[in-house]
Amino acid sequence: MIMAILVMAGIGLMLGIVLGWAEVRFRVAEDPLVEKIDKILPQTQCGQCGFPGCRPYAEAIAKHEADINLCPPGGEHGVRQLADLLGVEFKPLGAGKEPKPKSVAVIDENTCIGCTLCIQACPVDAIIGASKQMHTIVANACTGCELCLAPCPVDCIHMEVIHESVGNWKWRYPVFPIHEEAKAA
């Protein structure tokens, strides 16, 4: 019995060593430009740019397959940052891509039938609930992407604009730009 345990532990140890070596040996280096572009994007994962999320959009920008002005949640400030980073000319937001005010989804609890379609559509897991039970939105996690509106069969979800007040106000943009050299120090 002890011999079998030792043999299994030895096999596990050897497989761990082989997998660790393979991870180091076959590591795929990621494009640092994609990382920088992704940090500029708002991370709403809304798909308004035509891509399934911010990371695929960043990869398309880095490969010159997409324009820098397709992200409404990023607004003109995001487009300016991308233009500065890539050394290209600033372009206003694309046609039909007007920035919307910051909003959050709200579920009418009396109308919700608990179908879970909104939960499946939410890219940031901001909706909680169970099948045949009322659902609710975690307001702090909701990015306002509106992807939960279309799948709802009873139209119990609506968007509420978040009005800026002293309680929820924060700097939208850094006051002083933080350069990569300063971060490294």
Automatic annotation (TrEMBL):
Enzyme class at the top of the EC tree: translocase
Q: Coiled-coil ranges per the record?
A: none
Top-rank taxon of the source lineage equals Bacteria
This protein's UniProt keywords: 4Fe-4S, Cell inner membrane, Cell membrane, Electron transport, Iron, Iron-sulfur, Membrane, Metal-binding, Repeat, Translocase, Transport
Molecular function via GO: 4 iron, 4 sulfur cluster binding; electron transfer activity; metal ion binding
**Gene Ontology annotations for the cellular component aspect, listed alphabetically:** plasma membrane
Q: Which residues bind [4Fe-4S] cluster 3?
A: 122, 142, 145, 148
Enzyme nomenclature, EC number: 7.-.-.-
UniProt: [4Fe-4S] cluster 1 binding residues: 46, 49, 54, 71
Which cofactor is recorded for it?
Answer: [4Fe-4S] cluster
Q: Which residues form the 4Fe-4S domain?
A: 29-88
Chain intervals for the UniProt region annotation (Hydrophobic): 1-23
The answer to keyword Repeat applying to this record is yes
InterPro entries per the UniProt record, alphabetical? 4Fe-4S_dom, 4Fe4S_Fe-S-bd, 4Fe4S_Fe_S_CS, Elect_transpt_cplx_RnfB/RsxB, RnfB/RsxB_Proteobac, RnfB_subfamily
Give the quaternary structure. The complex is composed of six subunits: RnfA, RnfB, RnfC, RnfD, RnfE and RnfG.
Question: Which family does the similarity line name?
Answer: Belongs to the 4Fe4S bacterial-type ferredoxin family. RnfB subfamily.
Annotated function: Part of a membrane-bound complex that couples electron transfer with translocation of ions across the membrane.
**Name this protein carries in UniProt:** Ion-translocating oxidoreductase complex subunit B
Q: Which organism is it from?
A: Parasulfuritortus cantonensis
- Native organism taxonomy: Bacteria, Pseudomonadati, Pseudomonadota, Betaproteobacteria, Nitrosomonadales
